[in-house]
């Protein structure tokens, strides 16, 4: 019985420490606070059911990120929006700053229009600040695919946000900063 209590305590400690980061990730993926709550809850429930088997998992955070992404992608395929309609007004929040809020909303809306796989890569790379190799492992794809999905996703965001042509259609051989590379 003491071992079971220790497992539960370890689980509670892990979830308490990671809940906000997982919610940020889920919100960045789906763009809706309620859906993000559902994704995190579903992921944490699955994690709890498997917790006793996870002692040997080397990178638990990667495993949990993978679970959350799989739940998100499954939700996209099964049509959560066609089954659940929430009514009511969102809770009142104090605005941080007019320009920041507008920019964040524009970015959130644009990100919601990026294809799900590209969105997943962008969220893991830029919201979760994970390196290419870790994103590849979480999504079970090659590092090259992560890089190309990142490039395609960023290009889609630039188009959706109406970025200047210099940013949205980089010249062949141009770096991210606009300087031309020499050679290959």
Q: How would you characterize this protein structure?
A:
The protein is an all-alpha fold. It has two domains: 84 residues, Rna Polymerase Sigma Factor, Chain: A (Orthogonal Bundle), CATH 1.10.1740; 76 residues, Winged helix-like DNA-binding domain superfamily/Winged helix DNA-binding domain (Arc Repressor Mutant, subunit A). It contains nine helices and no strands.
Please identify, by name, the CATH architecture of the largest domain: Orthogonal Bundle
Strand fraction band? under 5%
Mean pLDDT: 79
> What is the overall shape?
globular
What is the compact description of this entry?
This is RNA polymerase sigma24 factor. The chain is built from nine helices and no strands.
Lay out the secondary structure.
Layout lengths: L1 H29 L2 H18 L9 H19 L1 H4 L14 H15 L3 H12 L4 H8 L3 H19 L3 H4 L16
Helix pairs in contact: 1-2, 1-3, 1-6, 2-3, 3-7, 6-8, 7-8
Keywords: DNA-binding, Sigma factor, Transcription, Transcription regulation
Family: Belongs to the sigma-70 factor family. ECF subfamily.
Organism: Rugosimonospora africana
